[in-house]
Amino acid sequence: MIRVFVVEDEPPALRKVKRLLEAESDLGLCGSASSCAEAISEIRRTLPDLLLLDIHLPDGSGFEVLQGISDLPQVQTIFLTAMDDRALEAFDVAAIDYLVKP
After folding, report:
1. Do the Cβ atoms of 50 and 3 come closer than 8 Å?
2. What's the Cα-to-Cα distance from 84 to each of 43, 55, 58, 79, rounded to whole Å?
3. Nearest to 34 by CA among 55, 9, 13, 6
4. pLDDT in tens, 35-76
5. E strand map for the chain
6. Has residue 5 got a pLDDT over 90?
7. What are the contacts of 68-73 at 24+ separation with CB within 8 A?
8. How far apart are CA 6 and CA 21, in angstroms?
9. What is the average pLDDT value for the chain, to the nearest integer?
10. Are 26 and 2 in contact (CB under 8 A)?
11. Alpha carbon of 86 to those of 8, 19, 69, 75: distances in Å?
12. Cα dist from 85 to 4, 9, 20, whole Å
């Protein structure tokens, strides 16, 4: 099972992502966070395989989250964001995908 951690500060979007993950038998939610500080702390604690990461967070950005966990074993990252202009930057930090929310 792939252990997934979600970083999303919008409650409706987080609920939707959680529902989608629950429908997949090979994916398991191991945690979620709504801020950079919380995300860094919880990702360090849970050590997920996959990170679904929003860019705009109340206390910084998803890129700051990645900097804060850069010493951990590589976590695969998919950006899940409303921002359609940061994809190149995301792929520069080794994102495996960049999904734009409606």
Report:
1. yes
2. 25, 10, 18, 11
3. 9
4. 999 999 999 999 999 999 999 999 999 999 999 999 998 899
5. 2-7, 27-33, 50-53, 56-57, 60-61, 76-81, 97-100
6. yes
7. 68/36, 68/39, 68/40, 69/40, 69/43, 69/44, 72/43, 72/44, 72/47, 73/47
8. 10
9. 95
10. yes
11. 17, 26, 20, 19
12. 25, 19, 25
- Residues whose CB falls within 8 Å of the CB of residue 38, separated by 6 or more in sequence, listed in order: none
- Tokens 């899940």 sit at which residue? 80
With H, G, I as helix, E, B as strand and everything else as coil, classify residue 12: helix
What does the block give as tokens for 54?
Answer: 């929003």
Measured CA to CA, the distance from residue 73 to residue 69 in angstroms comes to 9
